[in-house]
Amino acid sequence: DLCDNTFVIQEVLKVEILAIEDRDYNGEFEVEIKISSRERPTISLIDFKLYDNIVIQGTTIDVGTTTTKIELDGKEFDAKVNGSFKIDLNVGDMDGDGDIFEDSELLGVVDSFATIMGDCINTRSYTIMNIGDGTVTLKPDVRELMNYDDFNLTEMDPTVPVSGKEIYMYAVIENVGNYKASDVVVSVDHFGYTLLSYCNISSNYIYVGDMYPTKPYGEVGVLWDDMNDALHGVGESWKVQNGTLSVEAGSIGNSLQFTNDADLGSEGKLFVDLTSYENFMDYETLSFLVWSSDDNNENFQFVLTDSNGKEAKWSISRPNKDSWDDRIVNLKSPHVKDTDFDLSKIKKVSFSSLNGPGGEFYRFDHIMLQKKELGPGIKKVILLRLKAPVVSYEEYHPITIGVNYKMEYVNIEGEDVEENFQEEFKQNINVYPKTVQLRIKQFVSYKKLILGEESDVTVTVENTGDLKAYDLEITDYLPSGLELTEGEASKTLGELSPGESTEFSYRMKAKEIGDYELITKVRYKDERGESYEMQSFPVSIIVYKEFPRLDMRKNIDKTNIVINEHIIVVLVVTNTGNKPAKDIVIVDSIPEEFSLTSSKEEEITGNVNVFKIDRMNPNEKKVFSYIIKADEPGKHTLKGCKVRYSDYENNYFEYESPDVNIDVSGIPKLNLEYSLSRESVQDGE
Hints:
This protein has 685 residues and is mainly β. The chain folds into six domains: 6-38, no CATH class; 57-141, no CATH class; 153-215 and 379-431, Immunoglobulins (Immunoglobulin-like); 221-370, Jelly Rolls, CATH 2.60.120; 438-544, Immunoglobulins (Immunoglobulin-like, Sandwich); 550-665, Immunoglobulin-like (Sandwich). The protein has no helices and 56 strands. The strands form twelve sheets. Strands 18, 19, 20, 21, 22, 23, 24, 25, 26, 27, 28 and 29 form a twelve-stranded antiparallel sheet that branches. Strands 36, 38, 40, 42, 43 and 44 form a six-stranded mixed sheet that branches. Strand 19 and strand 20 form a beta hairpin. The chain starts with 5 loop residues before the first strand and ends in a 20-residue tail after the last strand.
């Protein structure tokens, strides 16, 4: 059929007719065609990493004290916040009594709820981290199947597997093809590793479901009313159960309009039977304008029927009387849906529960199907918690990700076709034996000193490895221009277990002007008696004759609070040096578990306060304050603020104040229950 310029040959190639021409005018036509590979899905592994820890990020959603529409996992829910959080997980008031929250419950902090129900892996649930003033913060619960956006990758550092150590396998899959992949199943061959699952997986197979291509759509929306991307003309009509529905010219353009001879029957139904199956899967929403002369406030319904007679229904509120109103249908979130309803094979589109029969009660216009503008995006994460094999030396232990999926379509003979695809991605991984790993940290209270001034030094050595360290000798070597005035600049220790740390402190004095380096060295042995030596990065110490010194302190009015309680943060900066300081900038960050509620300062960017001072003379003091609110329970740290400044010879300095710890408690949720032994009693009983 040359009228259709695209068709498929043997389900392998796509053929496009570019031109048809009778050059010699003899009835013999030349046809120019373009042959290319047809559409197909392709599931690819786009990222694979191993982590010691994962960080799941929360999302803060604006929710009103009255009913608000919120979107989670592609679905719309009615919700509201009034001290507690309330969400209608059944979506809508389908019994028409006006109460959309009749089957919901009051939820508090640390309560959970599910937006998608299935087996353990495919259930999508959230824990409430905080309920604020018009907001709720939700964090998705951890499963073997997660969404790409669930993770805060900036706070996750990749690792290598160590003998017997627990790790997280993070694998991201994406449909990089140009057609839907159906029934995607991922298998993980982790031979030698022990699976520590969340959902008690009995096999290594994870059902992902359908995955759509993530290439951007070129077309965002399409006007529709007869499913052939064409508007009805005046005089054309849709079917009604008894009678006709005309398309008439109106103030909004051509609109679908009841005429007096239209009898909608007892169901009040207007519908169109489609000549062929239509695929609504590519679309996210259907919007339309609706007009009604009826002042009844009962909802009507939008209904889609698939090729097997299965239905999905959306409850639609009626427009204001005698006015055109917008209505939007979320195609992926019907209020009521039959089991096995197939959005990819729609055979009938209906408006039902309309008042009638007869009379010009309703008009519909500007029916628009909308596609989402998708960037590289819809990705799924396979997350497995594994225990590495026990090894005595470096060993090769690969992990292989297998993906099976299908492509379903109707061929040119009208037959349902199902093709199967399989991909395999082998990850070459070496497992390392346990080792001793020491980390050296040096804290120096003042790295730039005035001649004769003192500075406190604290050295911490932590065993971050997997084996004990023995016979430790830790030594700070002070240069000749620095003098020990208090404490010891060394320490010996018999053993240091994994996860443990040791420290020592001393005070030193600037004895000579100059530039110096402070280095810590550690000697130790492993369990086999082999000796090792390591040293820290050098810390630069500069001794001046005179210069400005800004001492910074960060204080809070209380260290133990409950969630949503306010804290006053006070910053005190003092020039304890012997020269003026200029161009002073104080940068103070606020942890993500807190929110800023009040600050008088000139610059606030996100969760960062910036304070500026032009000049501070010796012994001069400045005080700043602001108020924050605790949004999440737990033990938190308010990081020390940083101060940067210079002298009038353009020497630059920087100082960071100590951290401040704070403990935030949650608010208990109490449920009151009571019972009566009987409902009626006699006087005096």
